[in-house]
Amino acid sequence: MKILVPVKRVIDYNVKPRVKADGSGVDLANVKMSMNPFDEIAVEEAIRIKEAGKAEEVIAVSIGPAKAQETLRTALAMGADRAILVETDDEVEPLGVAKILKAIAEEEEPGLVILGKQAIDDDSNQTGQMLAALMNRPQGTFANTVEIEGDSVTVKREIDGGLETVKLTMPAIVTTDLRLNEPRYASLPNIMKAKKKPLDTKNPADFGVDIAPRLKTTNVSEPPVRQAGEKVEDVDALVAKLKALGVA
């Protein structure tokens, strides 16, 4: 069985994003970029499944600029077997990403597609669900636990009320949540080996996918600065203050 793992190059989670002066978007100049944390979890889970002898190959795929090769090399250093970069300098919306992944999945025929539930740059949380709908495959989103048994996969998924368990017939789509696992660090020997692993470069036109944007960003701005708190002497003063603010 093959496992397909989409990964995205995003601003590193330790970096505070800066808005462009004209408000047209986020400034990416000279900003540290890394793999989306949810996708790291997806790569780790795919590698663990392979190490357990339940998969033969892990394929990492990314859609983005040429520099996304660095992200794919990270996935290869973690343990993925090969990678595919769909190179484009245009911003690709979740539906476009899902269509490209559908085309790749039809070529590779993976038994499982594991991807992060969302990317930390846009927080869309759409691609996995859209891919499942386009391919008419069962989906297990927000996975807390993934267990493969024969031709099915059991997913414990995080919901508002606790955990829900679903059993999916493969091929299936799984999106990962934060508590699924702790991603490994790539060792230096594996980083060196990753440089020799195959990485194919394609473009959206190879799959016949139109990535023209359907949405337009009108303005991006910093969140308002949080006002300083105020101490009160007792409960009566607190109630009076809340009433004065119109919240009680």
* Unreliable parts: none
What order do the SSEs take from the amino end to the carboxyl end, as H and E? EEEEEHEHEHEHEEEEHEH
Apparent shape: globular
Quaternary organization: single chain
Mean pLDDT: 92
Which CATH architecture?
3-Layer(aba) Sandwich
What Rg is obtained from the alpha carbons, in whole angstroms? 21 Å
Q: How many β-strand runs?
A: 13
Roughly what percent helix? 25-40%
Largest sheet, strands/sense/barrel: 9 strands, mixed
Question: What are its keywords?
Answer:
transport; ETF_b; electron transport; ET-Flavoprotein_bsu_CS; alpha/beta; single chain; 28% strand; globular; 248 residues; 9-stranded mixed β-sheet; 6 helices; 13 strands; ETF_a/b_N; Rossmann fold; 27% helix
